């Protein structure tokens, strides 16, 4: 069953690509928005942080799931 645990970790690595791209897009949009309307920086920062948290929660859930599946297969 060693190969299943290894495949879990490969899947986790591939799943990390999505939140990484998402966080990059969120902060790119934040920088663009602040450059266009500097007075809206406070509101845009709150929205960007919320988007960051939502994007990262999927990776954290995937990380927990990968370790749970790895431990249940051993």
From TrEMBL:
Site description Reversibly protonated during proton transport, residues in chain: 56
Membrane topology: Multi-pass membrane protein
Keyword Repeat among UniProt keywords: no
Gene Ontology MF terms in the entry: lipid binding; proton-transporting ATP synthase activity, rotational mechanism
Entry-linked CDD domains: ATP-synt_Fo_c
GO cellular component: plasma membrane; proton-transporting ATP synthase complex; proton-transporting two-sector ATPase complex, proton-transporting domain
Database matches in Pfam families: ATP-synt_C
Keywords attached to this entry: ATP synthesis, Cell membrane, CF(0), Hydrogen ion transport, Ion transport, Lipid-binding, Membrane, Transmembrane, Transmembrane helix, Transport
Compartment(s) where it occurs, according to its Swiss-Prot or TrEMBL record: Cell membrane; Membrane
V-ATPase proteolipid subunit C-like domain mapped to chain residues: 11-69
PROSITE patterns to which the protein is assigned, alphabetical: ATPASE_C
Main location as per UniProt: membrane
TM stretches of this protein: 12-35, 47-69
Function: F(1)F(0) ATP synthase produces ATP from ADP in the presence of a proton or sodium gradient. F-type ATPases consist of two structural domains, F(1) containing the extramembraneous catalytic core and F(0) containing the membrane proton channel, linked together by a central stalk and a peripheral stalk. During catalysis, ATP synthesis in the catalytic domain of F(1) is coupled via a rotary mechanism of the central stalk subunits to proton translocation. Key component of the F(0) channel; it plays a direct role in translocation across the membrane. A homomeric c-ring of between 10-14 subunits forms the central stalk rotor element with the F(1) delta and epsilon subunits.
Record-stated family: Belongs to the ATPase C chain family.
Protein name: ATP synthase subunit c
Organism: Aeromicrobium ginsengisoli
